[in-house]
Design brief:
The structure holds two protein chains of two kinds. By secondary structure, chain A is largely without helices or strands. Chain A has no helices and one strand. Classes of the chains: A little secondary structure, B alpha/beta. At the A-B interface, β1 of A face β3, α3, β7, β8 and β10 of B.
Chain lengths: ~45, ~450
Amino acid sequence: MKHIKTLTKSKLTDNLNNKGCGECQTSCQSACKTSCTVGNQKCENN
Amino acid sequence: MVHVFKLNDVNAAVDTNSGSVHILDDITYDLLKEDSFKDKYKLEKLSDKYTKENINEALKEIQYLIDNKMLYSEEVILKNKIKPVFKALCLNVAHDCNLKCDYCFASQGDFGGKRCLMPFEVGKKAFDFLIQNSGNRRNLEVDFFGGEPLMNFDTVKRLVEYGRKIEKEKNKNFRFTITTNGVLLDDDKIDYINKNFVNVVLSLDGRKEINDNMRKTVNNQGSYDIIVKNFQNIVNKRNGETYFARGTFTNKNLDFTNDVKHMRDLGFKSISIEPVVTDPQEEYALREEHIEVIKKEYEKLALEYLKSRKKEDKRFSFFHFNIDLNDGPCLYKKSVGCGAGTEYIAVTPEGHIYPCHQFVGNEDFIMGDVDEGIIDPKIYNMFSGVSVNSKEKCKNCWAKYYCSGGCHANAYNFNHDINEPFDIACELEKKRIECSIMIKAKEECMNDN
């Protein structure tokens, strides 16, 4: 595409059957302890 | 739902429901902004600015993304597949502190109660409770917290040993972290922590005068000169393992980019700085009138971050800019958020269980104790019923799958309702996400060149 460049390689809705294992880290255990940011946690399944 | 924005000469569009992020040229930005491409009158106006051929070409690309569900995609409401079992513990091993920081949400360590240390037996029961209530979940997290956890380090060590022993028997994997003010960090503790803890959070606010203005010793002296060398020592010996130098900013240092730069120059490469959470009446509180200044400061920090990527010795990571656009959490996780009260609990030295560390001290939120387990289904149910799609303010927010509904404690403290997010936190979170996307776009361009 000439006008648009997509940064993401997959969609949140892809392969939902294989998601939701719940093994990922709890967000507040990382660094914030006050301001919730879930988007930068890692998926343990990848 | 599509959010279109412009930052530091990057035009971007976020398709909330699919999580797709697109970098736009000027034509597609103009077409998508305020849904102009859907409006005949606005489209006509754009033909003064761009050629018809270019507009048609751009419209085709937009249509391609719509057809492929990467733009204006429909909402998928999930039935919650993650069975909420407990997997993370904030263990308040010391309700006491050897600093008395002005802004401390734990009331200088005691959370409004009496000063005390957690006995080993209470910690052991908390571990047992976690294991018994973690179902098939293998990875279990324990953050040793306080007050100041190093004031009870013998108990911390005994608990780590206990965890290592039972994890094998129970087929679990404990991940230990610790959050410390650094005052008692000596070589022995550093070696032990570096050997046993997957992450350490080191509390430092940045420049000496900023740090010392808030983070004081019991004798009212600044703590900077005591803690910085200890933190440098632990980080130098950490061998690449995760850590965060973590600061808090107040209205006294709205120029917090300078604090991040200072921490970087001290040798800390993994940095987080968080907005203070306090009563708006406090002199140093962040209030509505500070929002625009803070947003500008995040933009400044993002530019500094990008500048630093070009020089090896200046490079640092900033917690809130680490958004992972490709391998981040799944939609299930993004819908339910932090898991306070359902996956994550805090335990006090007396053995009381709270939904998270931020609620400790508010007795209305005691969910139970480690002897009897969860005894108040009312609180458990209150937290398990919350998701981004249950909160009115979140439902139509473009950023909902990045913050996942925000901090329940912030919502409760400011609006007395965990379903009512705290507006200032929302505004700042959205700006941090825009900055992160701008950074990703710039880095992508650097890779292309």
